Amino acid sequence: MKSKGIIRRVDELGRVALPIEIRRIFNVKEKAPVKIHINENEDRIILKKNRHLLECMITGEISLQNRLYSGGIVLSTRGAEILFHALKNN
Questions:
Q1: Residue 80 to residues 50, 65, 83, 84, 88, Cα–Cα distance (Å)
Q2: Which residues belong to the signal peptide in this entry (predicted)?
Q3: Does the predicted model carry a pTM greater than 0.85?
Q4: Which of 11, 46, 47, 90 counts the most CB atoms within 10 A of its CB?
Q5: Could you give the angle at the alpha carbon of 18 between the alpha carbons of 12 and 23, nearest 5°?
């Protein structure tokens, strides 16, 4: 990942504003939910766009037929087949 070289300060409430340039690059709209992940081993805070609740993690398909598994994993039928074959072949 390339560094944009932008530095922001944390405010008194612990907030950091995402620069408009970065929001445009990643198409993050105002009030959009963003997941915060912490990688303690590499001393990083990672922001990820929140995906639709029913979006398959493999294929990106959004459907009421998709299934939610433990750990928040969402798979479509096709996504489950792809994952099954990938695990079977390894």
A1: 21, 12, 5, 6, 12
A2: none
A3: no
A4: 47
A5: 160
